[in-house]
Each structure stands twice: as C-alpha cells, then as structure tokens.
Amino acid sequence: MSEQPKVALVTGANKGIGRGVAEQLAALGMTVLIGARDRQRGEEAAAALGGHAVTLDVTDPATIEQAARQVEERFCRLDVLVTTPASPGPGRSTPKTRATRSPARSTWTWSARCSRPTCSV
C-alpha cells in the first residue's frame, strides 16, 4: 500500500515567495493547495503548478473558515501550512483590520479548525 502524498496549503501562493514555496513543495511530491485572495489568480497558479486553488484571505475569518471546510471535505487533512504574509506594495495602504491581524492567528485558527495535526512552516 502506497503512502498518500502530504497535503500542503501555501497562502499567497499565486505569486512571489508563496509561489516559489508552492513550486518546491509540488516538486517534493506534495499535493499543493494554492491559497490566494483573488480566485482567478489562484486558479491560474494552481493550473500552472498542478495544484488546487483555495480562495483565502488570511485577514478574513470567513474565508479562513470556508477554506478550512473545503480542505477538510476534499482532503480530510492538512499536513503542512505555510503562511506568506503579503504586503500591499509601494504607495498602497491597507485597511486597519488587515494591518492588525497576524499570520500567527491564522495558523492557530487552522490548527484548531482541522481535525488532524498541522505543521506550520
């Protein structure tokens, strides 16, 4: 009996560092979930990497909950969670709620929500 590939979720994986991390995890044979705030960009990245898109904004509890349900229903587990905090870029501001929420809180939410242990990298 062969072992199932580990399931990894990478936030901000549609570009930048998150995309690079997702590429490396896919190269290791993991099932990679591409977390992205923009559904279309997430789907495009997932198609390019052979992964699965998950619409997710780590500053929005509703999308965190929805993504957790989606992962649990489809994969029954999450083995690896990589959070790559995004910055709004030069000259752009972020709403106050985004600036005050931390990725660590999102990691805790995922760990508490999923029925099996997670590994935050």
TrEMBL record:
Organism for this UniProt entry: Amycolatopsis deserti
Coiled coil feature spans: none
Superkingdom as given in the UniProt entry: Bacteria
Lineage of producing organism: Bacteria, Bacillati, Actinomycetota, Actinomycetes, Pseudonocardiales
Keyword Protein biosynthesis in annotation: no
Region (Disordered): 83-109
Protein name: Uncharacterized protein
Keyword annotations from UniProtKB, A to Z: NADP, Oxidoreductase
SUPFAM superfamilies assigned to the protein according to its UniProt record, in alphabetical order: NAD(P)-binding Rossmann-fold domains
Pfam families assigned: adh_short (PF00106)
UniProt similarity note: Belongs to the short-chain dehydrogenases/reductases (SDR) family.
